[in-house]
Fold this sequence. Notes:
Elements lengths: L1 H22 L4 H46 L13 H15 L4 H4 E10 L5 E9 L34 E9 L13 E9 L22
Helix pairs in contact: 2-3
Keywords: Membrane, Transmembrane, Transmembrane helix
Protein name: Pilus assembly protein TadE
Organism: Croceibacterium selenioxidans
Amino acid sequence: MRTGAMTLRTKLVPAELVRGLRLDQRGLAFVEFAVTLPILLVLMSSGLELANYVIATKRIGEIAALVADNASRIGTQSILSNRPISEAEINDVFIGADLEAGQLDLEGNGRIILSSLQRNEDDQQMISWQRCFGSLAHPSSYGDEGNVGISGMGPAGDQVTAAPGTAVMVVEIAYEYEPLVPFIGLPLGKITDYAAFNIRDSRDLSRVDNSGKNEVSNCS
C-alpha cells in the first residue's frame, strides 16, 4: 500500500511543478524588461545620434558665418592707399575657425573654401582668389579660383554677386559627420553650409600680399 502511494505521488509531482510555474509571476517583469531592452536602447541611441547631428549642423553653419564675417573685416586702410589683405591674415581666420570647431576636428574631417568674389575690368563676376583649410576631399560647388563670367556664387536661387569696386567673401564649408553610435546605421552623412559677407572696408583687391612669406592655404 505504501509503495503504491509513493508511486502515485511521484507521478503527480511533475504536474504540480508545471502548474506552479505557470501561476508563478515573480520573473514576469524581468522577462518583459529583457525583451524590450534592445528596442529601448535603439530608440535612445537614435535620439541621441539625431540630437548630436542637429547640434553639429548648427555649429557648422555658425562657423561658416564666422569665417565669412572675419574675412570681411581683415585688411587695414592707410591714409595714402588701400592695403591688400595678407596670407597671414587669411591663415588667422582659418585658425580661429578651427578653434571654434573644438572637438569637431574641422581640420581632419572638414573643408573650408574661402573665395573672394569680385568684378573684373570688363564688369564680369570672377573669383579673384580662393583659399582652403581642412583635409576633407570636397571641391568647390560654386567655382574655382580664376573663374570669370560666372553668374554669382551660392546655391541656385540664392546666389550673391559683387558690386563694382568691392568684394564678397564667400565661404563654403563641408564636414564629414562621425556617428556617436556607428552600428545604428542612420543615414547621416556630410554636412554642408554656405555664408557670404561683403567686405567692411576698402581694400586693395588686386592681390593677396605675402611679403612675410607665410604658408599659402591653396585649395589644390
